[in-house]
Specification:
The complex is a heterodimer of chains A (351) and B (509). Chain A is built from 15 helices and 9 strands. Chain A has 351 residues and is an alpha/beta fold. The radius of gyration of chain A is 21 Å and the shape is globular. The termini of chain A are far apart. Among the domains of chain B are: 6-185, no CATH class; 277-406, no CATH class. Chain B is 70% helix and 0% strand. Chain B has 19 helices and no strands. Chain B has helices spanning 6-21, 27-40, 45-68, 74-109, 127-142, 152-160, 173-181, 188-220, 229-260, 277-283, 286-301, 304-314, 319-342, 346-377, 384-406, 410-420, 441-461, 466-471, 475-492. The chains are: A alpha/beta (351), B mainly alpha (509).
Chain lengths: 351, 509
Amino acid sequence: MKKFIKAFIFILIFFILLYLVIKTLWLEETPISKFYDEPENSLDVIYIGSSNVYTHFNSTLAYNLYGYTTGILSNDTQNFLVAKYLIKEAQKYQKPSLYVIDIAKLADNFDDFTEADFRKTFDSMKFSKNRIEAINEILSYKKDATKRDYINYYFSFFKYHNRMKDFPTSNITGVKNLYKGYLLENRNIVTTKQKVFYWTDQISNLQEQNKQVLENLIKYIKEENLNVLFVVPKRYFEKDINERLNDAIQIIKENNLKVMNLNNIEDYNVIDYKTDFYNKWHLNVYGSTKNTMLFGKYLKENYNLPNHKGDIAYKSWDEEYERFKEDYKKYTENDFEEKIDTYKELMEDYL
Amino acid sequence: MNLTSLVFALFCIITICIYFIVPKKIQWVILLISSLVFLLYDGSLPLNIIKFLLILVPTYFCGLLIEKNKENKKAKIYLTIGIMLIVGQLFYFKYANFFINTINLFLEKFNSENLINNIETNSLIGISYFSLIMISYLVDIYNGICKPQKNPFKCALFMTYFPILTSGPFIRYKDVEEDLYGKHKFDLNRLCNGLMRILWGLFKILVISERCGMFVDTVYGNLDKYFGTFIIVAAGLFTLQLYTNFSGSIDIIMGISEIFGIKLPENFTAPFFSRTITEFWRNWHITLGAWLRDYIFYPVLKSDSMQKFSADLKKRFSKKAVKKITLYVSMLVMWIIIGIWHGGNYTFIIGSGLLQFIFMVLEDLLEPLSNKINKKLGINKETFSYRLYQRIRTFILFSFSMIFFRAKTVEEALTIIFNILVWNPWVLLDNNTLFTAGLDIYEFRVLIISIVILFVVDKLSRTGSVREKLSKQNIVFRWTVTYLLIFGIIIFGCYGSGYNPAEFIYRQF
């Protein structure tokens, strides 16, 4: 008996140590991992997409200006294929009034996807049947996927166990400049002096697999009777991607779902390619502030979203906004509220 | 099934659970079923069953017939038939193409256009192991060392006991009979000891061997890019990769068997502390050496033809010289067979056969001269520094021979040896250069610390079981060491995404 008690204690200590090791070596915080921190049924909007979401839409600012809360389910280069599974994941914890789905990645070459397009998203998701189904679907498109690939995706620790070499850099301790999923980026590294974004209305066909993915998602949305708004973000698009996105827009419209192309709306021209972009594809904090003010207002006015300002249950949103403002000042040496006032004046025709 | 894979771990856990749940008298049946599942897991099932029966059935019946005809000449005939059938299959499945290619080389030399096509052969996993095991089974029955197993299913278990199928060790029927078919109670101490040994094996493979492999594969895979010091480091690391991979697998196998209550013979006893190549081979792949000594070397040495050859030589040479010559000839036969057994390729015959033979003969021939020089110079052979020199020399010689073992062709091995001559020792001093070949500075640090741990444990093992020594320590120390080992593997092991673990190196044999 004594031996078995000893064995039990040994195993118990092992699991405690294992938990500490996994927690230490785990992937840094991502907008999706932060999503799970939100109390159940506390989010009004769920915004899904690639890096264009967490760099373009400042959820703390939208809350401060319009009072509704937005959960960001995005990661860099996140493939459009996972949108359906992220909606399913969100449905487990939240009952949002609206799902906003960024379709920028829908027109990418389907066969070009790599581990990077999914890895962070899967690793940020909690272990569940939904996550396994998502992994299974993605790997079913990969002809050379082996059993090892499946196991490596199912159990993320297989990927991250050797991150000791990253110590003691900040990489391992997490991304600190995430504010309710929004990433603060104040730099501008656009090198071209030309106008970086334009839009053509020419259409070319979506790739068959991408079309299938979109149709599956639409089918799911209809089955679940979800309120969804598809969005093409304000940014630079390669011509072929632009043309294929026009096809996607047409398919969405044909299915009687709403889609907004921010590149075709005059209001959004206030976003200046010289100052408001981090690079050709992403807005910096100035651009995202303008974008959030405009797009956030549109959502508020068109989707009857509630105002939680002053509600003690939503205190964390106020705190995160304050933290964001402090960090903004630290990075830019300017006051954010003053910036907001300037933008309000600049955009008074649209706001 | 790879020994370090999750599938194998799961397979073992299920087998162990069932093994201790079922009535003790049918425990061996569980081992047999598991072994057959393991054996037939890869490839075409019906074809694998036929291949398996083709070895089992003749061996089983030959064993019974040898015993039945022990008193008359027929026993030798049945023994010969049994061995021929086993060797014939081993030859067909493993070495047919090697001999076809050799014949083709000669045909090409004589400008013949009628070259022989290679045969498509997919051998059963572990065929090289269980073929030799079954030969020893028949010979031991013939020599009266053991009785044949009358139950064909029990005989099948002896042939296919799954832990040893991938890498040995070579077992002998009389040594394992009792354990293999015996009744075993669950024992927590045995489980802990077995798990500890498995952990040590995993540490060797996942932390050291796989890491060495990353450097070795980079250098040997880019011979137009890496020269001199890179190759010297790669050659040394390949030796360590091979050792940790092979002995680590043996540790896992021994650990699993220990949990079952089956004691297997040791296959390694700290070989890199050997002072000569001869001593090295007494500590490296011990069971193969013992098998070849008992079933090839001594039979060849004592054979009628060797006696006749010896008698002829005695007319021309001194008794001492004749003794040496017959000894060397027998050794040569044994080492060529070792080389062939390692694979149908001249690189194996040279690397793990002929070169080892040459080193041993030279050691033997030069020993008197070396003793004379040492005596004249007043060198004490029993000092630490001299022993260290001898161990380093042994390591270098073995690593050199392993260049052939690792190379795909003899030409490639010669290119590698030629490339060693490029003088660029500064890559060791320049912080960045060495770390461009598959292992960065972090990985190198982990590797060096792990190798130091390996050598410390090997050193300790020379004076008795390390696990026994550890068990005498207090619980805090014991548990700390165990946790360090477990988390050392979890954190520093080369597994999962980002690593491409090599198959078990010895598996191909």
